[in-house]
Design goal:
By secondary structure, the chain is an alpha/beta fold. It is built from 9 helices and 16 strands. The longest helix has 21 residues, at 117-137.
């Protein structure tokens, strides 16, 4: 089968499509014929050799990614009825970007009838994290929520989920195309994060109290600038780091203001809960209540171009590989 191999730490050019042995289903596994691979920003960081403290992966290895496809075969003790079913599965940081992947049967989530593989792949991984963050931060009706990185794959979902809960959503995105997108998705106020005065504009939109909840999907200096906009007694989630690091918020300062801090460790979700949340995200999407934004699709052989597109940050929403 064909698979995208990470041949060394480095830029997108280290991604090479190669022929590798077909996987074989273990006793509690299935083999999935992959149709679409979800490609997320953290995979570009792992490819470059970053985030080793979280993802101690050494090349060469097959590039990761969540997959959508059809179960081709099953291992021992797996119900044969899984064969031929349309599913998604979160494969992890390696071994997903291939024509065939092996996955534990416990990780499978059926794709609702009529939902295209592209849509299912675009929503299920970011949907898990977005739903988990909404639950963890306890967003409720009439609260004010600030979302940075609002035009990304997860940000676009959180804008919609925040509005579905009745919150007043202030979304930060960069540039005219991205701000127009999050406005279309229902944000109550949209701030151009490319402007130097964006924190002041966000403060004006939020009001004197500030944000009850800040969902920071960017990290770095933008995340740090968002922290003062959090209301005393509010919640601040520093879960995103496409800038290279999570928002370096002073925990003592947060405690002084009775702000609850959440980080990436808080969304390390056990498999059973991930499956439950993924099924919920797919059901919401199939019902038309949640819409993932797909910014670009690339053939498997053009995985390097997909990574360049992600790192260039010119595309809106999700980037997918098609097999």
């Amino acid at each position: 089968m064909r698979a995208v191999r990470v041949t060394a730490f480095g830029g997108p050019e280290v991604l090479v499509t190669a022929e590798v042995p077909d996987p074989v289903a273990g006793p509690a596994e299935v083999v999935i014929a992959v149709a679409v691979v979800d490609t997320i920003f953290v995979q570009t960081q792992v490819r470059a050799g970053q985030k080793q403290e979280y993802f101690p992966v050494r090349p060469p290895h097959i590039l990761g990614g969540g997959v959508a496809g059809t179960v081709r075969s099953v291992g021992e003790v797996v119900d044969a009825d899984w064969t031929g079913r349309r599913v998604v599965a979160s494969i992890g940081i390696t071994d997903g970007s291939a024509e065939l992947v092996a996955a534990p049967v416990e990780s499978l989530v059926p794709v609702p009838d009529g939902l295209p593989f592209e849509t299912a792949a675009a929503v299920f991984q970011d949907g898990v994290t977005a739903l988990a963050l909404m639950d963890l931060t306890g967003v409720t009706a009439d609260e004010r929520v600030l979302i940075t990185g609002a035009s990304g794959g997860m940000g676009t979902l959180m804008v919609q989920l925040g509005k579905a809960r009745g919150a007043y959503v202030v979304a930060v995105a960069r540039g005219e195309r991205k701000t127009a997108l999050v406005r279309e998705l229902g944000a109550d106020a949209v701030i151009d994060g490319a402007r130097d005065d964006w924190p002041a504009r966000a403060r004006e939109a939020l009001g004197a109290r500030g944000a009850d909840v800040v969902l920071d999907g960017v990290g770095g200096e933008m995340g740090l600038s968002a922290f003062p906009l959090t209301a005393d007694g509010g919640r601040f989630s520093a879960h995103g780091a496409p800038t290279g690091g999570f928002a370096p918020v002073d925990a003592r300062h947060a405690a002084d203001r009775k702000i609850r801090l959440l980080g990436i460790a808080d969304v390390q979700i056990p498999r059973r809960e991930r499956v439950r949340l993924a099924a919920r995200a797919l059901a919401e999407t199939a019902a038309g209540r949640l819409r993932p934004v797909i910014g670009g699709t690339f053939p498997l052989d053009e995985a390097a171009d997909a990574h360049r597109a992600i790192e260039g940050r010119g595309l809106l929403g999700k980037v997918l590989l098609t097999v």
